[in-house]
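note to self: dont lose this again. the chain is below, predicted strucutre after it. 135 aa total, dont forget to put it in the shared folder this time
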Amino acid sequence: MDVEQLEKQLEFWKRGLLVALGASVTLLATTLAESSQDGFWGWYFVWVIIWLAVAPPGFYLLMSKKWRKVSLSSRLNAAFGYLGCAWLVLLSAGIRRFLNSDPGCNTLIVITGIVLGGAYWYLRKKKDKPEELFP
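---
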């Protein structure tokens, strides 16, 4: 695939990011709104489906050999948008566990957020430098 076709596909991924953000924020809002155990397994089923829908596109746009043909500056925000949505979904699971008096995994969620933010900051600084492709 040439770069022009990939850039057209990137617009599709950016529109999909709006759907992913809506689903992530909705899950977070419903987690904050209800703290009961009713529908416990149903909620985790929805959580897994949303997480599996938003995390892989972020990694795919960021690390795929095919997408490395497109400049990092044009795909960075979309990739980290998907990863940020995945972090929101992870945060909603942490809040749900915290509300059900199990605060053990919240440290992992905070560390994940810090690493994600640091990686975005580092790559944003680096995006102006040319990316090397290895055969």
